[in-house]
Predict the structure.
Amino acid sequence: MSYDVIIIGAGPGGYVCAIRCAQLGLKTAVVEGRETLGGTCLNVGCIPSKALLHASHQLHEAEHNFAKMGLKGKAPSVDWAQMLTYKQEVIDGNTKGIEFLFKKNKVDWIKGWASIPAPGKVKVGDTVHETKNIVIASGSEVSPLKGVEVDEKTVVTSTGALELGKVPKSMIVIGAGVIGLELGSVYKRLGADVTVIEFLDQITPGMDGEIQKTFQRTLKKQGMTFVMGAAVQSAAKKGKGAEVTYKLRKDDSEHTVQADVVLLATGRRPFVEGLGLDALGVTLTDRGQIAVDGRYATNIQGVYAIGDATPGPMLAHKAEDEGMAVAEVLAGQHGHVNYDVIPGVIYTHPEVASVGKTEEQLKEEGRAYKVGKFNFMGNGRAKAMNAGEGFVKILADKETDRVLGCHILGPGAGELIHEICVGMEFGAAAEDIARTCHAHPTLSEAVREAALACGDGPIHS
Ligand code: NAI
């Protein structure tokens, strides 16, 4: 069998690429070694974590907010086994959905792990498949941290954290990034004491500074404990739980803490093992990512790469967009991704969402900008939802009024951000958003008010 394109990896990058290739008339196959399609995101990442975040949020609401709304009675108790079943059903529904889409689009699934013995050849087991083009979409894996002994039961990565035997009484999270704060939130809501140990002095590196501060305050209010400026030296199983040693950066003092479970969440690295990239002569960056040009081509003719295995933010939607773009390139079109408009969302409660430049970046670039801010407390719908915490902050060019970035902490932030993304893609000025009629009462009105705040001022503050 000979193909126009074989894609290695069926995560969000690979499976989206495959469907688009097939839609564009290319004979397409995907090699995937997991039992199910969907990669890390659908099997052990984005989707299962959102199932647990959703379920645990319902409990939090029942425990803390129902009585105020006149919903009296005992909050439900946690049936952890059932919550894991629910999570698994969500995963199965999604992964089977991709299988259906492959059949519908006539994409072949070659089961197994691929290597590339030569350009135009993909080896799976003992079979070598011929193809005009190869797209590597092999994703990422957890970066190990020196001194941390992961056993996926007591000292876990995000994978183990999604299937713990029981809800721990205490959890130490190493790293205040997206994974640590999302999964830390899940277990905090389910009743664990959660302590986050972070190397830097602020959480969520790269986010807008004002968001970082407010977000950390919010999480502290929810009961999460933070140890900041602390470099973890070691973590290992000890007795029935685990022990973590860290050094405070300010005075080099060493501290030891214990918990039932430790979650390692200090970042991910490209997963390219077994592909044979060395022998093939594929150039990697100094961070071990596959180097690609603007058309996602590697230095080897006919070999392309996308997603977490390549430079850029490790986000499912970045990989999806690259998957579509490279499919278009292979079909002779002009695939393109606008890296200036890639949103980032943290699915805690409240949610955090951002796109474009942060205030810190604009200052560093010496750019003249203005800030339009609006608190959700002034938004009727948020108040009706008992969710008045947080704000929308729009950054616009001081002279042209063009939107340069937006940062939201608040209810539905992960949905609201897309209004700004669309606006930015169209080169919108803050005034364009401010003059667009927004339905009342909606959370989206807070976005409009922030846009109004870039001009003559918001109405409701
Ligand atoms: P991250 O890079 O977001 O955060 C890691 C944190 O660990 C950083 O704050 C870093 O300063 C800290 N750290 C590093 N070494 C440390 C040490 N020795 N001691 C204490 N702290 C230390 O990494 P994370 O959360 O593991 O996520 C990995 C990737 O997956 C990220 O690129 C993230 O964007 C992506 N992801 C995205 C999600 C989303 O979009 N909602 C959800 C989950 C993951």
Summary: Residues 80-104 form the longest helix (25 residues).
